[in-house]
Amino acid sequence: MSDVREVVMPRQVRGAQVLLFVLAVGGLVSMLALSDGLTAYGQGEMLAPWALVWVCALLALTYDGGARGGVRMTTIVVMVFMVLPTVMKMGEAVGAGLFLDAALRILLGVPVVVLLFLPESTAWFDRER
């Protein structure tokens, strides 16, 4: 009889991982679609939150390997730093494109934070290696 334990990532963590990848691709599409109508300053202002999302998507690549609780907390903190200013500036969005860009960040960013706070996610990142 084999003494090997198979460790499977919980659905909550996999869901957060998938949402981060979808958010990263959505950000790239959004940046490409809206970049023509913006000034250089506007493009930079739009790029900053998406850069945070791309960092989180890179962190999500480590979720199934040897990631620990620090990776989870870093993802949560960076996502909160991305979502809160977006919520504050949502009313200032001029045009449907910028509004949809902000809505995408909020609608996909908040569930990532919630999923990573669930007990199953905490247990996954605190598991013994």
List keywords for this structure.
elongated; 0% strand; mainly alpha; 129 residues; single chain; 5 helices
Description:
- The two termini are 21 Å apart.
- It is elongated and about 55 Å long.
- The model has no long low-confidence stretch (mean pLDDT 87).
- It has one domain (11-125).
- Helix 1 runs antiparallel to helix 4 (96-117), helix 2 packs antiparallel against helix 3 (69-89) and helix 3 runs antiparallel to helix 4.
- The protein contains five helices and no strands.
- With 129 residues, the protein is mainly alpha-helical.
TL;DR of this structure?
With 129 residues, the protein is mainly alpha-helical. The chain is 74% helix and 0% strand. The protein has one domain.
Strand and helix map with partners:
Elements: H1 11-34, H2 40-60, H3 69-89, H4 96-117, H5 119-125
- Give the topology string: H per helix, E per strand: HHHHH
Q: Could you name the ranges where pLDDT drops below 50 across 5 or more consecutive residues?
A: none
Shape: elongated
Distance between termini? Answer: 21 Å
User: How many DSSP helices?
Assistant: 5
The helicity comes to over 70%
Number of strands: 0
Structural class: mainly alpha
Instruction: Provide the residue-averaged pLDDT.
Output: 87
Approximate strand percentage: under 5%
Radius of gyration: 17 Å
Number of domains: 1
The largest sheet is: none
